[in-house]
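notes to self, project folder thing:

trying the whole complex as one job this time. last attempt i did each chain seperately and stitching them together was a nightmare. two parts in total, labels are on each line so i dont mix them up again. if this works i'll redo the older ones the same way
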Amino acid sequence: MARKNFDVSSLMQSKVTWAVIAELLILLVCFIIRPDFFSISYQPSTGMLYGSLIDIVNRSAEITIISMGMTLVIALGGTDLSVGALVAVAGAIALKFLRWDVLTYNTPGDYTVCPYIFVLTVPLIVCALMGLFNGFLVAKGGIQPIIATLILMVCGRGVAQILTDGKQFTTGYSPFRIIGQGSFLYLPMPIIITILVVLGVAIFTRKTAFGAFVESVGVNPSASRLSGIKADTVILIVFMITGLLSGIAGLIYSSRIMSNDSNNAGLNFEMDAILAVVIGGTNMSGGKFSLAGTVIGSLIIRTIVTFVYYFGIVAEATMAFKALIIAVVIVLQSQPVREYFAKRAARRGGESR
Amino acid sequence: MPQKNILEMKGITIQFPGVKALDGVDFSLREGEIHSLLGENGAGKSTLIKCLTGVNRMDEGQILLDGREIRPSGPSQAMELGISTVFQEVNLCPNLSVAENIFVGRQPMKHGQINWREINSRAEELMSRFHLNIDVTRPLSYYSTAIQQMTSIARAVDVKAKILILDEPTSSLDENEVQLLFNVMRELRANGMGIIFITHFLDQIYAVSDRMTILRNGHLIGTYGINELGKVELVTKMVGKDMDVIFNLKRAEVPGDADYMLKAEHIGDASHVKDISITLKKGELVGFAGLLGSGRTETAEMLFGASRTVKGEIFVDGESITLRQPFDAIKARIAFCPEDRKRDGIIGDLSIRENIMLAVQSRKGFMHPMTKQEQTELADKYIKLLGIATPDCEKKAGELSGGNQQKVILARWMAAEPKILILDEPTRGIDIGAKAEIQRLMLEMCGEGVSVIFISSELDEIIRCSNRIIIMRDREKVAEVDGSSCTQQDILKIIAEGAA
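result (full assembly):
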């Protein structure tokens, strides 16, 4: 009995608990207003399940994938502002390979000019290298992450523009469409990719000692170095992973619109990713991180957006409304609120004993 | 001799979940007295202070200030009542000037603007009361720890305090700086202030205080005049065991033909240390004596690869090695407990388990992880072996007391099974029982064939443990003496005058 009470109290202390509660509350409001919000139906023509919940998870894919990397960067005590720009870069490269010389292949259609394997791999390699560049500035240059990644945040979109001569290409190549619009096991492909990425990052960090090293460097870099951890290597790997994941998100994004959009692709993604991580309970000052929390954080952000669309709140009020709900979530997670409920839980446990 | 009590604490009881932190403790402070508060880590000293300053709420008991009952709700209210505290870690802003630090939050104003002239002149006046004629407009970080300490005292005193609490103010000061602090304390005492002094250094208690109160496990053991109790009796009362038992340590025995484990020939780093040669035999304990800044730490950091060796050569077990980073040293089975436990040692937000497994894991590389089961077994083994006071290995290391944190770091390195162990001030700021335990552990490891380099500012513990003592001065090795045949006086003389 005592054991159980103790658990309730510590559960109340956890930010992840509050993130889950917040998500459930938003969903509950959705349900009250529109009881069919939760309905999921099967569409035989596309072989996919449909419904608001599926849509939320599907549409959160890019942010969830990026925020897996962002979680590690923040656990190191840094931030990566360049992720949104890398989404644009990945899209630009993919479309460049699909259309190559637009003057010759001047109508978009179900074809690719360069081998499809280039379309898939080169964007990812370039984004990983750009992430490595970020990591290099931070680890070897000793530059604060927020400043170091600001460079690519600004120039990344420029690179994307140059690659495509400032034009917006479109494509109709069907294998490319699968990434963002296809399905597998009745589920939209982005959900499948997200699941694989989340599992991959979770296994890499928790089944090896990498996660512990990241946390250790995030809490106390000096002591970590003196304990033999190669902090520089850890930083390089983390930023490279984040770059790579931004590339994956970029492919999904451009496959959804079957186009590149150097100006708008991935716009403000860095903010949403940081927010997802913070709502997920990872502290901005570095240290312990929670990948599960981040996934929930990302879902919360997307649920709010869906909520806004779904209930026809006027477009002008969208941003303000989103900010309002996020403010409530953050307050719910604040130290005083968590402590208040933890104490209440502990006291109630004490009385019942 | 004024005899009026300015502070009386009666029957103070504080209950923490599962443990009575204080149990009916009485404490009184007279006007114009320096009263030492003694006890091991966890005895309840800090809790008593926190109760007085309103950080912890007491469950029973009362506090009388000048005969009137008070119940401070927090440090700022305590300060208004005239109770000022100077903590162990200087909590000032290093980038602000000395004067700003003294007046921050209560700057004198003139026409709605800060009156800088008054701030600076009043700060100068305050510091000169402590016989410190310094430029108070310089940033605090420009000055030594001692001056920073004085600044926080000046800040505390200027708010018209009746009671000044000094919590371990001397742990990062050298001998001269300690004397400076004592002069200030005596001056304040002469002005009628009551001072509560907490320290782990027994000599300092006898040098400066009038009375002492001893706590053990939350109980009051007694209050004594300074002449009533000798050192040995004092320690016995603090620890509750006989001092002989604690200090029954035997120096490591090293056969004359033992192999050299470590040889450093004419090593120097980029800035400080020019030319140092050191040998260390298997199972030998070599002490490094010398003042702060004499090059002890710099030399140790070179031997661990924490700073680059630009000159000379290092041999481990007969083989020449290059140490580019601590990882290389760990590969060569060298371990290093750094001087600044908080900054370079403990990883506060991680659990005891993670802190202990770190060095082993970093040697293996992250692709060869230890399972949680293995980590827990390792941590539990050392928690038991070193007597780390914790309910389990999942507690955050940052929440432990200083002595237990030190044991966790020691455990981290013992788990890495080193051949050479370098300990930089491992006993600083921890209580006498834990100190003795760490010394015992060091010597036990020597007995198992580990070679130890022991750096300490406390000469008696260096002499007690070392086979040989290397004496450093002004970033040079000035002498090497035999540990069994030298006295504190010999060493002090060499430190003061240079080569023997």
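what i see at first glance: Chain B has two domains: 5-244, 260-497.
need to look closer tmrw
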